[in-house]
């Protein structure tokens, strides 16, 4: 691979790690709020969290650009503080995180819905505090779902293209991820070999994530 392609792979990995580190706690908080808020508010929050999953990624990226671009109130304030989001690798993290959160939220919702609530009720009657209930019952049962959510979020982040290229642009060595590098190489005669290598790298990442997710799911179900 060319140095630019290597940079794209490394940046994609960095974006994936940061996206999970930011998006997983946010997704966990969203799912928790959906369980404690009144039903209408919880439904609205759930729909809002899942919205990027059904919107065209370019639309999501454009909305983020309007919110975080240098000419916006929030983006201008961050730029004044020395934090650039748009047309920066941090923008790739933000876009990928927003696109990955729906998958992580859905995985956590499914994991939480399978919790046997009777166990926590029994623990409460035996004098266990809410913290002890979470530590000894809820968290061990949720952990496979949390790991699955992290893996799916990572896979989505490193493969995100539309929202990322809209918010972060496609600057080789700075904001160019694997999908945007492939897009660039498609415009260059003779770039087929490097495209194939990057596609194989993407397939390897995706297969690894799916196999790991399946393994953790089976382990959590005791299969």
Q: Any descriptors?
A:
223 residues; mainly alpha
Question: How would you describe the overall organization of this protein?
Answer:
With 223 residues, the chain is mainly α. The chain is built from ten helices and no strands. It has helices at residues 3-36, 39-54, 57-68, 73-80, 89-113, 117-125, 130-159, 162-168, 178-185, 192-220. α1 runs antiparallel to α7 (130-159). The longest helix has 34 residues, at 3-36. The N and C termini lie far apart (40 Å).
Low-confidence stretches: none
Order of helices and strands: HHHHHHHHHH
Q: What is the SS-derived class? A: mainly alpha
* H/I helix tally: 10
Number of strands: 0
Strand content: under 5%
The shape, in one word, is globular
Helix content: over 70%
- Summarize the main sheet: none
- List the quaternary state of the chains: single chain
Radius of gyration: 20 Å
Mean pLDDT: 85
The span between the termini is 40 Å
């Amino acid at each position: 691979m060319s140095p630019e392609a290597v940079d794209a792979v490394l940046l994609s990995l960095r974006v994936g790690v940061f996206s999970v580190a930011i998006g997983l706690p946010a997704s966990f908080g969203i799912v928790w709020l959906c369980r404690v808020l009144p039903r209408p508010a919880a439904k609205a929050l759930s729909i809002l969290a899942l919205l990027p999953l059904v919107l065209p990624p370019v639309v999501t990226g454009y909305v983020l650009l309007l919110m975080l671009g240098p000419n916006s109130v929030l983006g201008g304030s961050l730029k004044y503080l020395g934090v650039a989001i748009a047309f920066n690798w941090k923008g790739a993290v933000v876009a990928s995180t927003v696109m990955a959160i729906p998958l992580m939220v859905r995985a956590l919702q499914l994991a939480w819905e399978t919790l046997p609530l009777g166990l926590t009720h029994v623990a409460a009657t035996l004098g266990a505090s809410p913290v002890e209930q979470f530590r000894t019952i809820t968290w061990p049962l949720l952990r496979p779902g949390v790991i699955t959510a992290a893996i799916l979020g990572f896979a989505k982040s490193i493969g995100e293209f539309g929202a990322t290229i809209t918010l972060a642009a496609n600057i080789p060595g700075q904001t160019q991820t694997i999908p945007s590098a492939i897009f660039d190489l498609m415009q260059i005669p003779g770039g087929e070999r490097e495209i194939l290598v990057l596609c194989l790298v993407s397939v390897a990442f995706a297969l690894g994530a799916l196999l790991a997710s399946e393994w953790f799911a089976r382990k959590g179900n005791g299969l």
